[in-house]
What does this fold into?
Amino acid sequence: MRPRNLVCITLLILCHLQVKGQTLTNGLPPQQAQPASATAGDSTSNNDGVTADSSSLPDEPGQEIIPVAQPETAPPQGVPAEASADTQNWAGNIWTGTGRVEFHYRDYVLHADKVTYNRLTTELEAEGHVQVAGGPNDVLINADHGDMQLNMHTGRFYKVTGSQGLRAGPRSIVYSTATPFMFSGRVLIQTGEGNYRLIDGTMTNCRLPQPDWVLISKAIDMSNGEASTRNSIFKFLGVPLFYLPYLRHPTDDTGRESGFLVPILPGNYSSIKGLVTGEQFYWVISRSMDMIVGTEYYSKRGWAPNGDFRYKGPGQDALTVRWNALLDRGIEEAVTTTTPAPPGQPTTSTTSEELVNQGGVDVVALGRKDLTPETRVAGIAEYLSSYVYRLVFNDNYSQATSSEVSSDISLTHSHSGFVPSASLDRFQTFASSTNGDEARIIHLPNVRYDVLERPLGASPLYWSMGSSLDYLSRSEPHFHARNVGRFDFYPHLSLPLNAGGWSVVPEVALRDTFYTGSQIPDLTGTHDGTPTISHAALNRRDVEAGIDIRPPAIERDFSLSGWNHELRHVIESELSYRYVGGIGQQAQNVLLVDTSDIATDTNEATASVTQRFYLRPLNAKPCTDDAASQQTKEASTCPAHSREWASWQLAAKFFLDPDFGGAIIPDRRNVFDSTLDLTGVAFLTGQRNLSPIISRMRFEAVPNLRIEWDMDFDPKAGRLQSDNVFAGYSWGDTTVGVTHAMLNAVDENNGAASTIQSQQVQPFLSIGKQNRVGFNFAANGGYDFVLGQFQYWGAQAVYNWDCCGLTMGYKSFDLGTIRGDDHEYLWSFTFANFGSVGDVRRSNSVFRDPTLPPAY
It folds into this structure.
């Protein structure tokens, strides 16, 4: 070979890409760690001045640096599983556990006698007392045996009983949803996470193994938070009752499904309505809206459409609309017709039966919308077409006897104490059941700008302001005031002073109110006291001044050693003076629409004395801290707290100007601003210097016992104006109480003052709650002493099992000739989370609505 060929071949070999394992830089495996005494400070420096640990160099300069190949562990895939058992063994990728096996995968826990698991395919087979618990729906499956593929969330279980919405706690099983759902079947097939299909099974809301009722079907699908089935049989207490061609039922607390509700079966009877039957359709509009639309049929009267709409938005945004109506075919009533006769001849009267339509419509809407954190729209609107419809067909006694319909929708913006607002108001009150005998007051619109009390610059003074612009209308029989404008400007200035326990607040104010219309009072009674409308404008101005004085409270402690308590007696007093001038007799010409129009001249003083009694144990009571009780079980000491167990307030007003600047119309019902803030009972029919003496007493000395006694005594008339007692006592699940109301108020009839009298007593009793397991009972009523009869009474008994309940009730109304001797029999059978068969609803239930304040 020639030398040049040898050189070229050699260069090609050296420079060509090498097809072999490349040499690793510093690929020598690390040596075993040596003791610190042997390696400390042992280092070598190279020519570049870099210090290297001598342990990283080969033992001999001639030793080859050959890398040792180490197999790299495959990165973990999937979700790790944890398992424990009495006996465990591995055979390749197959794990087998026997005896009290506990297997954890994601948020599922599996228990069984024997489990075989393939970690490559995530296939699992379980045998003997199989139980699977957990998942997003808190599923609990008990089976004889089964198999699963964990990564696919699929499986098959045999001889199954189980539930959704029941969570096994450390001590007991608790509800994790408002709609717990139990099932059983021959085979349960899991088709995905949270999706199941039950073959030859049953479903119920009752606890197994002996449920009160079940639905039996060949196949039940449980997916997307609901259970659906076809061709099922409903069985109650082991007796098949009826066939259901199709059923969908939610299995979680957020599951809602459109469909027909449980019908109202013909079994409820009312002497006015007859037999009642009906049906409703529930429509899930969206996640935040739903609606119920339906109708009832009264065998004696006709069809009664009803329904409600609900919306719940973010924060406090909400809207609720309820409507009820009756397409009444009429009731026969005797009508007497008088026929005029010629002069000298007697008149003739004929009586005939005519159909009287008592139907109507009642719609109520209540809602709120927050536009910004400081701006909101809120209000309530109600439309009632006929007061007779409410009086005859409303199932609630307090609503049936209410003669008022009020609507108020407002837009309010509140920022730093400045409150501009705009509202639309409509108030309607019925004087009797005769059509047209009513009064209406309308504000369309009412624009206000209020300033809450705030400091006036750097001075000690505080200022506030109220102002409004209204467009008013008021109409009633023989009186109609429409299209009246009103502007009201009302600034205040006050100076709070505090020293030595005394609180003194003097204040002054100016007020200017302009009206585009006015009235001329009927002082002689020519028009039965009804004023005459005048189109002349009126400008009412006044100057106000006042002072409020609150001396330091007087208190004294008394030791009740026999009761092991300390009694504190506190006396609080308040004196105030108020002067208003500049209105005079002009107050009689102001159109009366609301409380802004009843301002008059006054020169008055108010005195009030309140006594309070506080009771406190002398010795601290032992109590147990929750954390301490769980860990150390040691008792700690709770400090003794005082509580107010009784109070009594007496107050009265002294009028230095008995004629109120000439605003009083003698022998009429006069309501002024200076009398309205003392008592809600009208008393002013002429000049007087002393108001009624009011007494407000509260008594809560005995635990769970509360008594409230409000009384107004008129020294001029020498009688009680009002006497109201509210009392109630509770022990355990039982509450018993009574309310008594007596009224002697000033009324006005044909332009002359008269007295309206009323005295009623309303006892009530409740044992348990309407949805409590076991026996529950409620009864209440109302007796009118003036009429000498029960206007209303009702009783309702409920017995609830764990998943169903039976209700029986009776109600009776006697509200005069329009609704006299009306009795109604009620019944319903309730299935937990399904609905009720019958006609017991919140509106006609004798049990007190839990959303309302306490009755006493």
